[in-house]
Amino acid sequence: MFIAKHSRGNDDPTGIGEVDDDAAVAWEAPVPDGALDATVPLPGSKSLTGRELILSALADGPGVLRAPLRSRDAELMTEALRSLGTGITAEPRGDGRDDDLRIVPATELSGSTTIDCGLAGTVMRFVPPVAALALGPTAFDGDPYARKRPMRPVLDALRALGADIADDGRGALPFTVHGTGSLRGGRVELDASLSSQFVSGLLLSAARFDEGVHVVHTGDRLPSVPHIEMTLDVLRARGVEADSPAPGEWRVAPGPIAAREVEIEPDLSNAAPFLAAALAVGGRVTVPGWPASTTQVGDQLRELLPAFGGEVSLDGDRLTVSGDGVLRGVELHVPEAGELAPTLVGLAALAALPRPDGTPGESSTITGIGHIRHHETDRIAALVAEIRGLGGDADELEDGIVVRPAALHAGLWHAYADHRMATTGALIGLLVPGVQVDDIGSTSKTLPQFTRLWDRMLGSGTSDEKLDGSDVAGNGLTAAADILSGLLGGFGRA
Ligand SMILES: O=C(O)C1=C[C@@H](OP(=O)(O)O)[C@@H](O)[C@H](O)C1
Ligand SMILES: C=C(OP(=O)(O)O)C(=O)O
Predict the structure, then answer these.
(1) Cα–Cα distance between 80 and 88 in angstroms, integer?
(2) Is the CB of 122 under 6 A from ligand 1?
(3) In which pathway is this protein known to take part (predicted)?
């Protein structure tokens, strides 16, 4: 099956991306005519969809995911589990939202396959433990940049738990897991300071290890803690004994993983650029379906966005951000919310613009995000390079970014195949006419309908007509039309 790769573009001022002659045509970020007044429904959470796919594949019977995300990362996870023997079929919902998925676990997981991780951290960190439970070899590889994302702690931990893994010693993709149909499990130490996904990946499969798992983090910092809490939460919801007996330690007991029917929450991290737009432009943006309680880190936007000015209100399940277009500089330390950092830095770059009356903008410092150097690209280097490329004044810190007052001008914003770099370019382009994003198609990683939703937000009213799902379904692709055939082919119809 064809799954499009999204590339770095043709020039690479930082040297951190991949050069690809198939680079997509640049997308001119639209500039709004006036204040925003929009409702933006969003598709399912990437992190919840990935976890529930894994747990459904390892469960004690068939299960259903309602309105899961349909995107490149979700598709890669689906294909990975299918190729290990899981039955996954799509069932149209009839309300225009992304198809439900019916999942039938394999009687016996079988390897002898190759898994494409794309650029998805969740696939490369969550699926190898599943492959260790399969019979036969499973080869893993991914996009060129995926080979630079750290994997050593996962590979070493799996080996310590009894797995046989062949790699070239770099501690990265590609590698082959030689599964034997079972894994001993037990206590293991690992350093998760570069990614919480190292921990989540082990915990997700651990109920199926002979001895479960007891993971002990040895590093001096731990990023994205809410994502580990999400992992414990989804395990417990399926009857698995999972806890954190001490800070930096997690245990999962061996036992069955209950089959479930699960409704997937909207992706609150993907809400970030849309809600941020209300602050930048002025006006209001509402995201419907906001969960009353959630483990998604995107929920922290309710506290983070007001730091830039503006207001956040939750009315039932509708979260509204409103602003007057005057952004304040911020001092934020957000080790938990690295996933939101590109949007926060985008807002910081806009807060640094001169005011309409000619007074200078304000400085911002965002720290605690050193680990985002290991995301889809080195996001700290990439954000600083792109802000400077538009004439801005930004510097890298070891674990963050400082942005100082400066005007920005039109120019090419490189996405580095990174969906959140692409949406940050769109955000900056709201106030800086002539910003072009070189690879807006990279948004297909988690939000294939990004440009359609963005255009609607800029041009439409508050009508809930959009809630019929025509904009939410992953098959409503515009800029990412190149992955449509892959998505449809991959999910198939029941
Ligand atoms: O477990 C997950 O679903 C994720 C964990 C986080 O990874 P890091 O811990 O590497 O930041 C987050 O940034 C990523 O987008 C998704
Ligand atoms: C870091 C991210 O993705 P991944 O799951 O590939 O690590 C992200 O979506 O911001």
Answers:
(1) 11
(2) yes
(3) Metabolic intermediate biosynthesis; chorismate biosynthesis; chorismate from D-erythrose 4-phosphate and phosphoenolpyruvate: step 6/7
Q: Residue with the nearest Cα to atom 3 of ligand 2?
A: 121
pLDDT digits (tens, 9 = 90+) for 420-433: 999 999 999 999 99
Q: Count of H helices and E strands in the chain?
A: 13, 23
Task: Specify the range with the lowest mean pLDDT, choosing from 220-234, 246-260, 314-328, 474-488.
Answer: 474-488
Element containing residue 459 per DSSP (H, E): helix 450-459
Write out the residue limits of the CATH 3.65.10.10 domain(s) in the chain.
27-43+266-482, 46-263
Q: Determine whether the shortest distance from the Cβ of 438 to ligand 1 is under 6 A.
A: no
- Just give the CATH number of 46-263: 3.65.10.10
Please state the φ and ψ torsions of residue 487, each to the nearest 5 degrees: -65, -50
ipTM of the complex: 0.99
Spell out which residues line ligand 2, taking CB within 6 angstroms: 120-122, 339, 375-376, 420, 446
Q: Catalytic site residues?
A: 339
Given CATH 3.30.450.40, say whether it is the number of domain 27-43+266-482.
Answer: no
> Cα-flanking dihedrals φ and ψ of residue 318, to 5°?
-115, 115
Are 243 and 232 within 8 A, CB to CB? Answer: yes
